[in-house]
Amino acid sequence: MHGLTYTVKQVHFEPETANNESRRIIDAAVERGLAADRITYVIDNAPAHSRLEEEIQNFYPGLQVLRLGPYSPFLDPVEGCWSTVKANLKRRIVGGLEELLNVPDGQTQREHRAQCLIRWATDAFLELTHQKVLNFVNNCAAYYAPALERRAIQF
After folding, report:
1. How many whole angstroms separate alpha carbon 129 and alpha carbon 112?
2. 3-state secondary structure of 87
3. H or E stretch including 89?
4. 3-state helix, strand, coil in the chain (%, to 5)
5. CB of 93 within 8 A of CB of 100?
6. Nearest Cα to 45, choosing from 67, 65, 26, 23?
7. What is the reported pLDDT for 12?
8. Which residues contact residue 12 at a Cβ distance below 8 angstroms, ignoring those fewer than 6 apart?
9. Low-confidence spans in the chain with pLDDT less than 70
10. Residue 92's pLDDT is what?
11. For position 53, what pLDDT does the model report?
12. Considering Cα of 97, then 98, then 100, then 101, what sign does the dihedral take?
């Protein structure tokens, strides 16, 4: 069984949130029939992931946690996702500058700008399709074996 699971939502990531979200994702894979000892869970070194490896392995013996190096954008599909979202958001800001500057009556400039940015950011995330995410994953996967073998990687 092979698969990719991803979610898009607004979260303030604290360690407990990271642990709970990771368990939810892994539970979903296990419920679909994938044995925990066949799962490799890839995480970066974000502060919210400080105890994640230990927590995951307590709940899922045999599950392998692969922690990325300090900064490995070519191994982290989320880098491609963020790049796409940021580019979409920048285009929306430039295209919506007039809307951003015209504050409706009864609303503060700060409230109006926050609402515009939240709406545009949500739209930017919605353009991040399953196929685009899968393409980022596949692109990164090409570098996993050389990285694990500590070979030089050419870009």
Report:
1. 28
2. helix
3. helix 77-95
4. 60, 5, 35
5. yes
6. 67
7. 54
8. none
9. 1-13, 155
10. 93
11. 82
12. positive
